Amino acid sequence: MRFAVVQFGGSNCDRDVAHVIADICGVDCDLVWYKDRLQRKYDAIVLPGGFSYGDYLRAGAIAARTPVMDEVVRHAQEGGLVLGICNGAQICAERGLVPGTFTMNAYPKFICRWVYIRIENAMTPFTNRFKNGEVIRIPIAHREGRYVPDQAAGGVSDNQVVFRFCSRDGAVIDEYNPNGSFQNITGVLGGHRNVLAMMPHPERASDEVLGSVDGRRIFSSMVQAIGERA
Amino acid sequence: MRFNIRITVSLKEGMLDPEARAIQGALKNLGFETTALSTSRLFHISLEALDREQAETLGLQMCERLLANPIIHRYSVEVLQ
C-alpha cells in the first residue's frame, strides 16, 4: 500500500500529512513535486493544504489545471482514493472532482480555530472508522472555505455530504457555521464516492501532542478501505 | 490581427459577495450611503486572432476554462479593437 502527497508551490501542510501517513499510520508515503508528476501507481493521493500559486485568481484554480491533476483525475476515474484537504479541497472543487465549490468566507477574513464537525456519512472509504452522527474536534484554517453547491447542476445530495459544522453536542445550526457554508457542509464526496474534499485539517488532529487524534481516523479509514479491496 | 479584449467576471445574481458587503460598510463609516454595491474582476488581454469573432470566442473559452468558476460567476467579453 502506498500513498502520495502532491506538493504544489505554496503547499504548506504536505509534510504534516506525510508524517501522519508514514509515521503514525505506518503506511508508505511519497512526497511528489507536481512537476515530477506521478511516476507510479498509488492507492491514495492526498492534495494537502496551503496556498498553491498564492491563491491567485481563486484558491486552487491554477493548481487544478496543472498536468499532474490530469493524472489525479485518471487515478480517481480508475477508482483510486483522492483526499483533498483545505487548499486540496479547493483544488478538487475547481477541477470538478467534487460537486460545488469553496469560496470566500461569509465574513471575509481568514479563520484559524478548532471546530466541531458531525460525521454525516460513515459508509465511505474516508469515514468507515466513525459512526454516523459522531462529533469530532478538528481545526480549520482558511479564508475561502464557504461551501456553495452547484444549483444549476442539481445542488448537492445528502449522500454526497460527509461532514457538517456543528456544536459540541452535534447541533447543525447557523451559530456553529464559521464560514457561512451552505447547510454547514464542509466535506463532500465526488467521483465514484472515492474522492473527498474537506476544509478541516485532519492531519492537525492526529497526534496527542496537538490536542486531538480524531483526524487520524480519516487516514486509518482510508488504509482500512484500501486493505479491504486487496 | 491583434485585438484587445476586456473580460469582466462577476458573481452571479443573488450570490453572497462578502467583500462588497465589507466595502459598503467601510464607505458608510466614511459617510457615503450606498443602496447597492457589487465587485467584479476585469482582465485586459491582448491576443492574436483572425477576426473579432474569433477574439471573442477565445475570450469566452478563457472564461469557461480558467478565468471564471461557472458555479458562482457570470462573465462577459468585449472586443475593443
Task: Describe, in short, the structure shown.
Chain A is built from 4 helices and 11 strands. Chain A is α/β, with parallel strands linked by helices and 230 residues long. In chain A, the strands form 2 sheets. A 9-stranded mixed β-sheet of chain A has the order 2-1-3-4-11-10-9-6-7, with helices on both faces. In chain A, strands 5-8 form a two-stranded antiparallel sheet.
Strand order of the largest sheet of chain A: 2-1-3-4-11-10-9-6-7
CATH superfamily of chain A: Class I glutamine amidotransferase (GATase) domain
At CATH level 3, the topology of chain B is Mth169, Chain: A
Largest sheet: number of strands, sense, barrel closure of chain A: 9 strands, mixed
Work out the number of β strands of chain B.
Answer: 3
Rg of Cα set of chain B? 16 Å
- Spell out the CATH superfamily of chain B: Phosphoribosylformylglycinamidine synthase subunit PurS
Terminal Cα span of chain B: 10 Å
The second-level CATH architecture of chain A is 3-Layer(aba) Sandwich
Number of helices of chain B: 2
Per-chain topology:
The complex is a heterodimer of chains A (230) and B (81).
Chain A: E1 2-7, H1 14-24, E2 28-33, E3 44-47, H2 67-77, E4 81-85, H3 87-95, E5 101-103, E6 111-119, E7 135-142, E8 146-148, E9 161-166, E10 185-190, E11 195-198, H4 216-229
Parallel strand pairs in A: 1-2, 1-3, 3-4, 4-11
Antiparallel strand pairs in A: 5-8, 6-7, 6-9, 9-10, 10-11
Chain B: E1 2-11, H1 18-29, E2 40-48, H2 52-67, E3 73-79
Antiparallel strand pairs in B: 1-2, 1-3
Account of the 3D structure:
The complex is a heterodimer of chains A (230) and B (81). Chain A is of the alpha/beta class. Chain A has helices at residues 14-24, 67-77, 87-95, 216-229; strands at residues 2-7, 28-33, 44-47, 81-85, 101-103, 111-119, 135-142, 146-148, 161-166, 185-190, 195-198. The longest helix of chain A has 14 residues, at 216-229. The radius of gyration of chain A is 16 Å and the shape is globular. Chain B has one domain (2-79): Phosphoribosylformylglycinamidine synthase subunit PurS (Mth169, Chain: A). In chain B, strands 2-1-3 form a three-stranded antiparallel beta sheet, covered by helices on one side. The longest helix of chain B has 16 residues, at 52-67. The model of chain B has no long low-confidence stretch (mean pLDDT 96).
